[in-house]
Design a protein that fits this description.
Length: 125
C-alpha cells in the first residue's frame, strides 16, 4: 500500500527541518537565530528575557510553546548556541509563556508554564 510513501514523506520533512537555514531574500535586516527543532511546533517562541546583569546582552532566555525554556550566552552571534534547560529543571516539555530574570546574584529566574495547547506545571523559581 501507501505506508512506504508516507514514511518517505515524513523522512523528507524531518531532513528538511533539520537542515533549515534562514533566507533573507527580501533585503531586510532580520536574521534567524534559532533554536531549530526537528518538529515544526516546538520552535514557536512565545516569550523572551535578557539577563539584566549581562551588559553585552548576550545572555538570552526564550520560552517556547511546547519545548520549554532555552538559554544562549552568545545571543549577539549570527549563530547562537542554544541549551534547553528543561532537564535541569526536572520538567517535561511544556510551554513557557512567561520569563522574568531578576537583577543580582544569585541569579533568580521565574518561569510560568503551560499554554492553551500544552499542560502546565505552575510557576517555577
Amino acid at each position: 500500500g501507501h505506508a512506504g510513501s508516507f514514511k518517505l514523506a515524513g523522512d523528507k520533512y524531518i531532513n528538511t527541518i533539520n537542515t533549515l537555514t534562514c533566507s533573507n531574500s527580501n533585503g531586510s535586516n532580520w536574521n534567524c537565530l534559532g533554536p531549530f527543532f526537528s518538529t515544526a511546533h516546538q520552535g514557536i517562541v512565545v516569550s523572551m528575557a535578557f539577563d539584566p546583569d549581562d551588559a553585552t546582552h548576550n545572555t538570552l532566555y526564550i520560552g517556547t510553546k511546547f519545548s520549554g525554556i532555552w538559554k544562549t550566552t552568545n545571543a549577539q552571534s549570527s549563530s547562537p548556541i542554544w541549551q534547553n534547560l528543561q532537564s535541569s529543571l526536572g520538567l517535561p516539555e511544556v510551554g513557557v509563556p512567561s520569563i522574568v530574570v531578576l537583577l543580582g546574584s544569585p541569579k533568580r529566574i521565574y518561569i510560568a508554564t503551560g499554554s492553551a495547547q500544552s499542560y502546565g506545571k505552575g510557576l517555577y523559581k
